[in-house]
Amino acid sequence: MDKEFSNIRIVDIAKMAGVSVGTVDRVIHNRGRVSEENRKKVQAILEMVHYQPNLMARSLASKKQYHFVAITPSFAQGEYWEAISEGIDKAASEMESYNITITKLFFDQYNNKTFDDIVRNLLDEKVDGVLIATLFTDSVIRLSRELDRFEIPYIYVDSNIEGQHQLAYFGTESYDAGVIAARLLTDRISPASDILMARIVHSGKNDSNQGRNRREGFCRYLKEMGFTGNLHEVELKINDSVYNFTKLDEIFESNPNIEGTVIFNSTCYILGNYLKARAMQSVKLVGYDLIERNTQLLSEGVITALVAQRPERQGYEGIKSLCNHLLFKQHSEKVNLMPIDILLKENLKYYLNNKL
Questions:
Q1: Dist CA 307 CA 111 (whole Å)
Q2: Given phi > 0 = left and psi -120 to 50 = alpha, else beta, which region is 118?
Q3: pLDDT digits (tens, 9 = 90+) for 13-32
Q4: What does the buried/exposed string (b/e) look like for 210-227 if buried means 16 or more CB atoms within 10 Å of the residue's CB?
Q5: Which residue has the higher pLDDT, 167 or 31?
Q6: How far apart are CA 113 and CA 120, in angstroms?
Q7: How many angstroms separate the CA atoms of 254 and 277, rounded?
Q8: Distance (Å, rounded) from C-alpha 296 to C-alpha 287?
Q9: Domains recognised in the chain with CATH numbers
Q10: What DSSP designation does 344 have?
Q11: Max CA-CA distance within the chain?
Q12: Secondary structure of residue 165 in the 3-state scheme
């Protein structure tokens, strides 16, 4: 509202429009009968003074209860998804006075079936809005279509899925994050050297939507830049260091020209621990996400660079967007891109403990 009209009252708007206070009230709250002529008069004045109704007071006066559900991977302390959860908690705390409750449902990020299991009976209870971590594309699309059928708004975080009717997406362009990783790595290795791409495998898990997009961006950059080295791939396990060390020993012994390594999720520390144990200081490593096990190796110079995406803000903004849509009829952009941060040993201290 302009400073000139900062203290304007409904009675003032009524006088300016030449109508009654009751007519102004009905137009503002879109209730009751108002002639088209009077509606236009009131709306013209409202636009002129940039009138904003007191949405907070309106919400507090409402007795309606809202139930949101957040569907994200489970996590241990210090892992990537803990930050998403903290953002959700912060938004929930701020929304507490608006009669909002949030239920968190967790699935195993390495097992698609666990996602399907927890959402199977999601709509048996009253649900007003849903936040979804989009790791499993096909499963998320099935859930999205079910939510569409019941006209329940939903938010995507982590990676976007085109062609759906999500209210909004909060996250990065995963493809671009892959391009950035490729540039960071190729700028630090010899032009004709080889690159090792590592992938974490687990029973029941395919690559996540985000991981596939990052890999595509990474490989496309190499192709467009005329990369002449060889690309090698290795599959590692999330909790089996003996297996991982054996596989990595084999591939490095067979391919001594490998100078760069990359992994497309937050488990960069798995490769980092190997390089540290084998004292392979000359091999460059680029990965993702500002989690403690990664940042420790970055500070030691084992990890060359991390690409980060502000997960706390994704969870926070996702819940806030649902709230603004349902309570205040305010709509966010459909695609809301988070900054892509490039973390090096030299600037790491500026990002530690820099949360919402």
A1: 25
A2: alpha
A3: 999 999 998 898 888 877 77
A4: bbbbbbebbbebbeeeeb
A5: 167
A6: 11
A7: 19
A8: 13
A9: 3-53 (1.10.260.40), 64-169+311-338 (3.40.50.2300), 174-308 (3.40.50.2300)
A10: -
A11: 86
A12: coil
Amino acid at 148: D
Q: How far apart are CA 224 and CA 237, in angstroms?
A: 31
Is residue 299 within a helix (H) or strand (E), and if so which, with residue range? helix 292-299
Count the Cβ atoms, other than its own, within 10 Å of residue 142. Answer: 14
Q: What is the mean pLDDT of residues 175-185?
A: 98
Which of 348, 351, 355 has its CA nearest to residue 316? 355
List pLDDT tens digits, range 199-255.
988 654 557 889 999 999 999 999 999 999 999 999 999 889 999 999 999 999 999
Residue 336 carries which side chain, given as an amino acid letter? N
Q: Find, among 218, 161, 169, 229, the residue nearest to 193 by Cα.
A: 229
Q: What is the mean pLDDT of residues 300-315?
A: 97
Q: Encode pLDDT of 278-297 as tens digits.
A: 999 999 999 999 999 999 99
**Which amino acid is residue 202, in one-letter code?**
H
Rounded distance between C-alpha atoms, residue 61 and residue 71, angstroms = 30
pTM of the model: 0.80
Sheet holding 66-73, edge to edge: 100-107, 66-73, 129-133, 154-158, 168-171, 335-337
d(CA 78, CA 56): 35
Number of H helices, E strands in the chain: 13, 12
* Residue whose pair of structure tokens reads 């079910």 in the numeric block: 146
d(CA 116, CA 108): 10
